Amino acid sequence: xxxxxxxxxxxxxxxxxxxxxxxxxxxxxxxxxxxxxxxxxxxxxxxxxxxxxxxxxxxxxxxxxxxx
Length: 68
Fold this sequence. Notes:
Distance between the termini: 44 Å
Largest sheet: none
Radius of gyration: 14 Å
Number of helices: 3
């Protein structure tokens, strides 16, 4: 039997490890250099949870108060 909770924990661990080493995947001094409303961890999780909508629709669904 598949343990879905364990799979989600492993995925979260991978995302955390990736964002802790984000400098290995970005252009130094340019990408993710400021503290933004959408940090790398949030962007990765949002992309993985996207359905088949446009990017705008997905962002507004995920962050309804983003325009504030």
